[in-house]
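ZP: hey, is the adenosine-5'-triphosphate complex queued? I don't see it on the tracker
AM: it wasn't, my bad. submitting now with these inputs:
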Amino acid sequence: MLEAIDLKKTYGEYQALKGLNFKIDKGEIFCLLGQNGAGKTTTINIFLGLLKPTSGKALINHMEVGTQMADTNKLIAYIPEVVQLYGNLSGTENLDLFSRMAGYRYSAKELMNFLEKSGLPQQAHARPLSTYSKGMRQKVGIAIALSKHAEVVFMDEPTSGLDPKATDEFTLICKQLAHAGTAIFMATHDIFNAVNVGSRIGIMKEGEMVHSTSTTDVDAKSLQQLYLKTI
Ligand SMILES: Nc1ncnc2c1ncn2[C@@H]1O[C@H](COP(=O)(O)OP(=O)(O)OP(=O)(O)O)[C@@H](O)[C@H]1O
């Protein structure tokens, strides 16, 4: 579904990615840990087609990002740390706009269903996005991913700043998405949540994947120890 093959990225003299290799299957939630500057966002930006790798390949469904971007972009959705949509438009209007941009046209009832599935309270659907909390914005991001039928969802620190209840709700939605077959790539600093939500954990250091483990083989305390020893 998602594959990095010897991915390298250099910014000027600085080598941010030094030959990254990983594979993420359908239905997996891969949580990527790593210090500030390890190269997590660079990796995501390459898969989103926002950055060109210096060498190597980023593949989505065996298609190379960059050369087949029109096709790969149809398969992906992105949820950043703060979902930035149109503040003057409501949740429903944002969802309508972004799903149309992805080539879908939905009825008001269908839009409402996506927002409900994402867990956004119904009384918020018609309110301007500028009045939404961070957790509510994340839910609109999820609704957009659902409406696009995204097969891969990239998330960059999606739970940072969310309260425990909102984190829990977000985790549940991620698990539901994965259960339906979506592959999730989540860059995070939250070791506890990574173990809770992830099916696999990667630890990145200075542009390389130095550990990859299944969450069935590790608990939060031992992952924290491994992380601190690694970085
Ligand atoms: N446009 C750029 N020009 C030069 N260096 C850059 C650029 N973008 C990123 N870098 C450098 O590349 C390295 C990797 O950055 P990246 O943002 O991918 O790290 P990260 O793991 O996402 O960090 P964080 O956890 O802080 O978000 C860092 O040293 C960063 O300073």
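AM: back. The chain has a mean pLDDT of 94.
ZP: great, adding it to the tracker
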